[in-house]
Fold this sequence. Notes:
This protein is an alpha+beta fold. It contains three helices and 15 strands. The chain has a six-stranded antiparallel beta sheet with strand order 3-2-1-4-5-6, with no helix packed on it.
Amino acid sequence: MRGGFVEGLFLRRLNRFLVQVQVHGRLEEAFLPNSGRLEELLVPGNRALLRVVGPQGGRRTSLDLWGIFTGRIWVCVDSRMANELLPEAVREGLIGPLKGVDELQREVPFEGRRLDFLASKGVESHWVEAKSVTLVEGGKALFPDAPTERGREHVVFLREIVKRGERAGIVFMVLREDAEGFSPHWARDPLFSEALKESVKEGVWVWVLRFRVGRGRFFGAEPIPVELG
């Protein structure tokens, strides 16, 4: 079963990165690879999709919480998938500023930091951060769903890169299919939202992809409009 998926029921969140689920009638703990609040998804009794990862050094559980079924759609809550999905989206030409990329490097150091990707096409390069989005309200995808100083620092750092004459952008990956547009979550994190808006004014580009999510898989993606507010 290792490497596959198993369904269960979500019961409760134990701490920031650990949840309790019921699988085949047994109580189990699962790693939650997402630091967001996820309050609208982590509802007791919701169906949960868990990836079986097997015992690994330092882990207290062999399960990862991958997805939650809302009663209508699956939502992927594994924030690591944003970085896993981006290379395929680049290959398929789904990210406008990155069309025609020759090389895509992961986790590239830049002045003491590591950025998610460095995309190169000829002499042109783009420093890129990828963010996963799970919150949708009134048809609009919102990020973040919890205040994120780290996320704000990423945006400000990309702005500084652009000021030096290089190119930089953020790709928001909406890991659910029911969003018609995207906006920063001004009510939840005004500091991040303002930083994003100002960074775009300075030349940082933003691209948003909405994914159709199934039981443990993705069925495709398409760009959706961005409204910075």
